[in-house]
Amino acid sequence: MIIFPAIDIMNGKPVRLYKGEFSTAERVAEDALETAISFQKAGAEWIHMVDLDGSLKKERVNTEVFLSVARETNLKVEIGGGIRTLEDVDFYINNGIERVILGSVALKNPSLVKEAVQQFSGEKIVVGIDAKNGYVATEGWIESSDVYFTELAKRMEDIGVKTIIFTDISRDGTLSGPNIKQLSELNNAVSCDIVASGGITDLNDIITLRNEGLYGAICGKSIYSGTLALRDAIGACE
Predict the structure, then answer these.
(1) Of the residues 8, 51, 168, 172, which is catalytic?
(2) Catalytic site includes residue 130
(3) pTM for the predicted model, two decimal places
(4) Quick one: average pLDDT of 102-119?
(5) Three-point CA angle 90, 94, 97, nearest 5°
């Protein structure tokens, strides 16, 4: 299982949110690049980054932060937030970003996801499914829908998506443990690789997710708060 340490960016700085509420933004580090370098030194091969301003503005905002991490480290960078067009996808992939995460557009504009997969491959395009009470939320988690999370996952599988990041919004940033029930439901519903996001607290959670046969786990607040040592998490999954 791959461990994806996370850096969410707002106003150019690394922050964490509580249950996706932008008003709860708390700065967790001074510099994204320095933080990324520390993750690399701990043994990480990947990093998960989110443009929170981009999510709200529906366009790329903190671009240079992400590109600097791709340039200045050996980490494989996956980036989400504010990516709404094929031009956005092309820009990131052709500037050293390993994978692009499509979130809101997966629900609102699935044809764009299909085009992106066809043009850039299923290895480069990841879909992020964020849910409240099992139903998909979009636009920085502000808008809700009546689409059940496994239904959207199946649609994405049908158009060639290989990897899905699933976030239970009610657990994100809470250190209350991942939603194993829904993750297992999703893992059984589709053949896509599933990445767990939201609520991961400690090494026991990592081991549980690994034993569930998941592809990856995104760890943010647990690393910053010290309840999970990144090196230990990586070691448990080797």
Answers:
(1) 8
(2) yes
(3) 0.95
(4) 95
(5) 95
